[in-house]
Amino acid sequence: MCGIAGVLGTRAQTSQLIGPMLEVIRHRGPDDSGDYVGEDFAFGMTRLSIIDLAGGHQPMWNDDGSIGIVYNGELYNFREINTRLAEQGQDFRTNSDTETIIRLYERVGRESLTDMMRQLRGMFAFAIFDRDHNQLILGRDHFGIKPLYYRVESQDPARVLSFGSEIKSLLTDQQCPREVNFDAIANYLRFQYNPLDETFFRGVFRFPPGNYGVLDLSTRRIDIKPYWTYIFDGEGVDDEAALVAQVREVLEDSVEHHLIADVPVGAFLSGGIDSAITVTLVQERRRALGLDPVKTFTVGFDQVSEHREAREVADRLATDHQEVHVSLDQYLDVLPRIAWYFDEPVADPSAVALYFVAQAAREHVTVVLSGEGADELFGGYRIYREPIDLDRVRSLPKPLRSLAAWASGLKRDFPGRNYLRRAATAFNDRYIGNASIFRPDEVRRLMRVPIDDSTQVVPGRELAAIYPGFDDLPESRRMQLVDMHYWLRGDILAKADRMTMAHSLELRVPYLDVDVAAVSARIPDSLKYRDGTTKWLLRRAFRGRVPQATEGRDKLGFPTPFRHWLREDPVAVMAPIRRSGFLREVLDMEVVEDLAAAHAAGTADNSRRIFVLLMLALWHEAFFVPDGAAS
Asked: pTM for the complete prediction?
């Protein structure tokens, strides 16, 4: 695992910039570093050594020095690729998966980058320098597990100036203007993360997952193309026994590949089914190899905790289990640092829990496995069952449907009103993903700066424009795709990467594997949602191998008591919001105080909304206020 960075310009310019760009992300790779300064660009990396500790130094070059790479991630099928290339006469100097990508580019990528990228199974972001073609190849993994950003010229957005694993690398250039993107703020207030391609910093973009880009060093123009997207397999395979066997087999294989490392590997363990399956497979594999029990880690608070549920799984599997406890003071004290690590505000309260459990895990292991992605691929969120319930209204005769729609619009509240309202609301207007914080009308009332409605993201409409047959899919599948393309990328994976890399800990996600995704795409809704539960087939595939109580337990995640703390100590929680001159400029603070007062009085739960504002204030302090959050 590493951090990478690159900058275009003359040797005199780039030689001064590449060092600070790498130093600011040293937390991503404290074990080693390296850079290359050419005539018109420079790139480099900071390395967290995981595979081939001695032989994986970067930049890594081919035999004649015409191809070089800086690379962040893990290629889980590098041994299989190496075997194929060796059969074609290829020799290897190292045991590093970095060399695999170089050799694959030499033999396949120069002819077809799409074919090359589709052979990769892993999480990655890389830059390949091809001297003969005077170009850089940028690539990012299928789901966006590993981050990659690039900065463009303000007058010509097709011309790239720099790139890196984190935005803060790009900001070390004094010529990079720190201009706030208010369109991102408006969307952030709705989603709790920024769903736009352009980040909170004008001119800085996130490189899209499942894509590669060819950057011409002479013109600095980049041509970005997709190589993969998640596609549902028609109506699915309605063969329960066959699918159970396929799910079991592909996850066993994925976990085995995700355990490849030359350093200690552990796992995060909540009380839910996803992490229980992962830890079960890890422990079974370690036993088969005669290794010690896997080290597992969970986190909790006084008011809410998964300790009991996680301990149930740990005791059943006999893992080497550790529990982490977080107090209110610890939670609030670390928020400014978390805002700095994120680069953009991500208002997920569980990120703090992940920060502390990662900190504890790093004292014992260098790699952890986690359960991210299972809900999106296997249908784990309870909201995905909503269309099944709403169909009861939609299947009524037309006169009754009209009556229900009329009743849903009444101002007077009554039991079932929200249910009727949602049944009468079109999908694109009803579902924007797993987090919906402020409604569009509330955003307009809250923000004091003008909002460009054309920049407000409507996920369903955007996906319908790029995803063949999107509008014809069942609503539950459309929900899954919205969450894969927005929630998973913008919140879940951003949180997973930043909170673990803050402690130089590599997090691996065996559910987000391209082979696992192919199997999940075959599962029909009838086998995802059954017996009042979600992820039914996934649970069924591991029945008897995880504790019975865990098999049927609803999703837990990393619960946090922020809503309780906001009532117990509102002065401490609200302090960064109230002292922020930036928020006073862009937000109507009377509306903000009304939210806080209603929460304190117990008439509304505004904790998520206030946390969104809190992280926005801390983000601005971290990047725009001198000494706001020391790096």
From this structure: 0.94
